[in-house]
Design goal:
The chain has eight helices and no strands. It has helices at about 1-25, 30-50, 65-90, 95-100, 105-120, 125-130, 140-150, 160-185. The longest helix has 28 residues, at about 160-185.
């Protein structure tokens, strides 16, 4: 029970930080962009954490919380999308369609969100049994999310380069893990 509480506490820290910066300290010059940053980074990091759980299983076994962690990642991705639809586009669906078609990083984000939405919908026991092989699409969604994030930046800072290196390292180790699993099955 304490582990679950800790997971939720850590997962909601970015939202608390966001709300404090927006409503208490009132020190954010562009709130919409700031919400994009916090919700996008939150979704990406949490989804990456959910796939790395199998890599650290030997040291810390949190596999039984992977579904909940993935759903928390979906929650942040949903907030990210709602920021676009509600605050940025003001429900102007012609604007949303135009922006999605004109800016490749937006349609990559939409495709990634569709994958994460599918995974969230099919995360129930009955649907997971039927669609679990498609949950490997999380790797494609993370690739699209990373490209989406890089393309959305005007310029990358050193922190963002470090993040990209971190993503590449995790991807490498996940591929190695899959390769080992595949060769032991054969």
């Amino acid at each position: 029970m304490m582990i679950r509480f800790s997971i939720y506490l850590i997962a909601f820290l970015p939202i608390v930080y966001l709300l404090l910066r927006l409503f208490i300290f009132d020190d954010v010059s562009d709130p919409i962009k700031y919400i994009y940053t916090i919700t996008g980074a939150g979704a990406t990091v949490i989804i990456f954490v959910s796939i790395t759980l199998s890599m650290i299983r030997e040291k810390i076994n949190l596999i039984k919380y992977r579904k909940e962690i993935g759903l928390l990642g979906f929650f942040y991705a949903l907030l990210h999308l709602l920021n676009f639809i509600v605050l940025d586009a003001s429900f102007d669906f012609s604007f949303i369609i135009k922006e999605t078609v004109d800016k490749p990083f937006i349609y990559l984000g939409m495709i990634a969100f569709s994958i994460v939405l599918f995974m969230a919908i099919t995360s129930t026991k009955a649907l997971f049994r039927k669609y679990n092989k498609y949950h490997k699409l999380v790797y494609l969604s993370l690739l699209l999310i990373t490209i989406h994030w890089i393309m959305a930046q005007k310029a990358l800072s050193i922190i963002q380069y470090i993040y990209i290196v971190f993503i590449i390292v995790i991807a490498y180790f996940k591929l190695q893990q899959q390769k080992i699993r595949y060769t032991t099955i054969k």
